[in-house]
Amino acid sequence: MNITVFPKKLSGQVTVPPSKSVAHRMVIAAALSNGISEITNLYPSVDILATMDCMRALGAKIDFDGDKAVIEGIKDIPESAVLDCCESGSTLRFLIPVACALGVDTQFIGRGRLPQRPITPYLEEFPKHGVSFEYNNTMPFSTNGKLTGGKFYVDGGISSQFITGLLFALPLLEEDSEIILTSHLESKPYVDITLGTLREHGCQVEETKNGYFVKGGQHYMPFSGRVEGDYSQAAFFKVANSLGSDIDIAGLSEKSFQGDKKIVEICEKIVYNKNGGLQPFDLDCSDIPDLVPVLTVLGGFCEGKSYIRNAARLRIKECDRLSAISQCLNAIGGKVTELEDGLEIEGVGSLNGGEVDSFNDHRIAMSMAVAATRCTSPLKINGAECVSKSYPDFFEVYESIGGEISREP
Ligand SMILES: O=C(O)C1=C[C@@H](OP(=O)(O)O)[C@@H](O)[C@H](O)C1
Ligand SMILES: C=C(OP(=O)(O)O)C(=O)O
């Protein structure tokens, strides 16, 4: 579906959808628990539906109705399973260790960019712990064998999702385990969300000076709760506000562990200079990768050069996000230069509109819809249906706050 967005500032109230990151974790932990958990404020994004289907395939009973899921933890572990991770990196990287810890011989299926996204730490470490892979740099691929504990050496710079996956799996093993980070852990706030979920389910993890120690033989206890609002989605509306819209954003928890909460501080700190223009910024984005596309849009309207730093990992997300957002903004009159691990954004004050591709990436499509609020002519976003990965009704919400769009199948 292609969507043309007509330039218009937005105003009204939005309740942000529940956090995708928190929801993945709550569903997985509930499915591993001994008993029944109830999760409310669940939102059927394609990624979350994928995680629920995978946990069903591993033996959990999940009854999802409205915004509530009743999850009965796995009782009978299947010998083998096929897990369709769709395009979700989280689902894939969280569930490889989980399936292996349960001893399920698993075929992993995926599409879009997922087959190209790395799973290197597992390929390197798991054969030393009883698991073999049939893997040809793409999907489907298969795992065989039951994971055993011990030391896991993991590069912290590819994706924090490997640490989360291991943290979910290691309490289930008989032996104690240690995760040893061989380089700085990027996206650490996401691991902190995982630790919070594990605590809620009664699992203990100790932080060490270079990683995590996890006792074996632990049991997940059921836990019922509500998924908190998503700061990475709130960021689109926050940035729209910094660009002149007037959106009242509801549904966020101030106590959240989400690293993307940083968007609040970033937008509060953005100051207007004496001509009413926005001051440029220089940001280390190692802990907030998902904010980068929309922050690039913000930089496009600042007066002077803004910088996004420590963001090399963005090249291995749903698309190469550094390249995609640069191409999109440059196609409509922006001045963005790719750096090896970041971006230089020269503010231009106003963008023209025209036509861009979503690169099949939800965060690129939504960022461009925010850019459109300040374009001088309509902006067509091709392949805009990709928002369903995290925010299926994004464009309906956008219309509800005064956005004007037309859809083309
Ligand atoms: O653990 C998570 O929920 C996520 C971790 C981050 O990935 P990386 O750790 O690969 O940066 C983030 O980009 C992704 O959207 C969600
Ligand atoms: C990168 C993302 O998700 P995942 O890694 O789970 O595919 C995202 O939602 O921006």
UniProtKB/TrEMBL annotation:
It is an enzyme of class 2 (transferase). 3-phosphoshikimate binds at residues 20-21, 25, 159-161, 187, 290, 317. InterPro entries: Enolpyruvate_Tfrase_dom, Enolpyruvate_Tfrase_sf, EPSP_synthase, EPSP_synthase_CS, RNA3'P_cycl/enolpyr_Trfase_a/b. Pathway: Metabolic intermediate biosynthesis; chorismate biosynthesis; chorismate from D-erythrose 4-phosphate and phosphoenolpyruvate: step 6/7. It is found in: Cytoplasm. Residues 7-397 form the Enolpyruvate transferase domain. The active site is at 290 (proton acceptor). Keywords: Amino-acid biosynthesis, Aromatic amino acid biosynthesis, Cytoplasm, Transferase. GO terms for molecular function: 3-phosphoshikimate 1-carboxyvinyltransferase activity. Phosphoenolpyruvate binds at residues 20, 89, 117, 161, 321, 363, 389. Monomer. Catalyzes the transfer of the enolpyruvyl moiety of phosphoenolpyruvate (PEP) to the 5-hydroxyl of shikimate-3-phosphate (S3P) to produce enolpyruvyl shikimate-3-phosphate and inorganic phosphate. Belongs to the EPSP synthase family. This is 3-phosphoshikimate 1-carboxyvinyltransferase. It comes from Ruminococcus bicirculans.
